[in-house]
Amino acid sequence: MGEIAEALAPAGFKALATPINISGLEFPFAAVFIGTRVSSEVVVIADTAFEQGASILRNVEGLARALDVSQSKRPITLLLVGPRPMDRVVEAMARLCRVLFVASLEPDEIQRSLAVLLPLNVPASSGKLADSLKEVRNVAEGLGAPFSDLVMRAPQGASAVSEGLHKLIDSSLDEPRDSGMAST
């Protein structure tokens, strides 16, 4: 379970002592983690190689009830490590909490299985990023002064662009229009 702890720790999950004790009741899980930063989840780990699905289900039911009685708002995520329990047991677990499966303790499998609990890793950009606003300005210059003025206001924020658009509309309404009819 150390491999899973290593994956959860950088995401702000803190390991708790097991068995976990809530309102005087003990719940024996292989490991228990609690979210400390962004996540408020309680993550419990059960090893299906050593514990039957029905026993895990009873522990999860008890944990869910104990958290409800203590008026906890923390959602539960159950990580099942090892062979998958019978479908009816998994369905019953899923009514109580989010159920994730970890088929093996290989680092890639752990990362894939825990992806919903872990922060998104955005790769660093390689190469020079284009200045999209500069490109828009270049295109807008070809459209004439009123439009390029709106684009020039963009770095000042949406309200500046809105103000410029209002002025553009107001000025076009103030200009007299040639109706195409000659006056006599």
Fold and architecture overview:
The protein is elongated. It has helices at 2-8, 53-69, 87-94, 107-113, 132-141, 145-153, 158-174, and strands at residues 13-16, 20-22, 25-27, 31-35, 42-47, 76-81, 98-102. The longest helix is centred in the first third of the chain and has 17 residues, at 53-69. The N and C termini lie far apart (94 Å). With 184 residues, the protein is α/β, with parallel strands linked by helices. The model has no long low-confidence stretch (mean pLDDT 84). The protein has 2 domains: 2-113, 3-Layer(aba) Sandwich (Trna Endonuclease, Chain: A, domain 1), CATH 3.40.1350; 132-173, no CATH class.
Please render the helix and strand layout as text.
Elements: H1 2-8, E1 13-16, E2 20-22, E3 25-27, E4 31-35, E5 42-47, H2 53-69, E6 76-81, H3 87-94, E7 98-102, H4 107-113, H5 132-141, H6 145-153, H7 158-174
Parallel strand pairs: 5-6, 6-7
Antiparallel strand pairs: 1-4, 2-3, 4-5
Helix pairs in contact: 2-3, 5-6, 6-7
- Count of separate structural domains: 2
CATH topology of the largest domain: Trna Endonuclease, Chain: A, domain 1
Strand order of the largest sheet: 1-4-5-6-7
**N-to-C series of helices and strands:** HEEEEEHEHEHHHH
Helicity level, as a percent range? 40-55%
| Mean of pLDDT | 84
Oligomerization: single chain
Secondary-structure arrangement, i.e. CATH architecture of the largest domain? 3-Layer(aba) Sandwich
Counted beta strands: 7
**Number of helical segments with 4 or more residues:** 7
